[in-house]
Amino acid sequence: MSLAEFITQYGALAVFVGAGAEGETAAFLGGIFAHRHLMPYWQAAVAASLGSFVADQFFFLAGRYASRLRFVQTFTASDMMRRVTRLLETYPTGFILSFRFIYGIRIISPVAIGLSSVSALRFLALNLVAASIWGTVITAIGFLLGNVVEAVFGRLHLHIHLLIALAAVAVLIAATAILTKKYLTRPSRRT
């Protein structure tokens, strides 16, 4: 089975699992797969959105109902959890709609929301909206980058195209991580 056949057969499942486990890279690659006509764009976007939605619901429920688990307690003891909680308390709706776009706080955020007073129904609704937007946007970026790569380099072999896409993702993740670290790890100012 060739790589293209494998992606055609299992691409949506891979994007779903990858978007839930890792996030941006899987959704972005889903866009590349759609650009290469290995799967329909809508399928890649839906798989990315659902993967993100399901994973965030899981971590929310872990925070809400399994706060005694070791991995939840590890999160709650971290300095990052205090910063995430402070953002959540200050901007609850905005934070829930945007946390998945902020590198480095994607898993800890739904745990923090689960530990907060945000209702499960409110999180469910906002998570559905945010995951839909996130999956559509990140997959679209991958699709558009596929167009750019093809316009610049011509039609490449699939593995070369994917390597260029992964390099672009690595650069974007590194830049986002630097910005996130700069703005989220600043010492809090006490008045």
The averaged pLDDT comes out at 83
**Structural class, from secondary structure content?**
mainly alpha
Strand content: under 5%
General form: elongated
Query: How many individual helices?
Result: 9
Low-confidence stretches: none
Helix proportion: over 70%
**Biggest sheet: strands, sense, closure?**
none
The total count of strands amounts to 0
- Rounded to the nearest angstrom, the distance between the terminal CA atoms is 63 Å
Instruction: Tell me the radius of gyration.
Output: 18 Å
Number of domains: 1
Order of secondary-structure elements? HHHHHHHHH
InterPro entries: DedA_domain, VTT_dom
Domain VTT: 25-142
Protein name: DedA family protein
Keywords: Membrane, Transmembrane, Transmembrane helix
Short descriptors:
191 residues, mainly alpha, 9 helices, membrane, VTT_dom, transmembrane, transmembrane helix
Overview of the molecule:
By secondary structure, the chain is mainly alpha-helical. It has one domain (3-184). The protein is built from nine helices and no strands. It has helices at residues 3-21, 24-35, 41-65, 70-76, 79-90, 92-98, 108-115, 120-153, 158-184. Helix 1 (3-21) runs parallel beside helix 3 (41-65) and helix 3 runs antiparallel to helix 8 (120-153). The longest helix is centred in the C-terminal third of the chain and has 34 residues, at 120-153. The radius of gyration is 18 Å and the shape is elongated. This is DedA family protein. It comes from Neorhizobium petrolearium. Residues 25-142 form the VTT domain. The chain crosses the membrane at residues 12-35, 41-61, 123-146, 158-180. Keywords: Membrane, Transmembrane, Transmembrane helix.
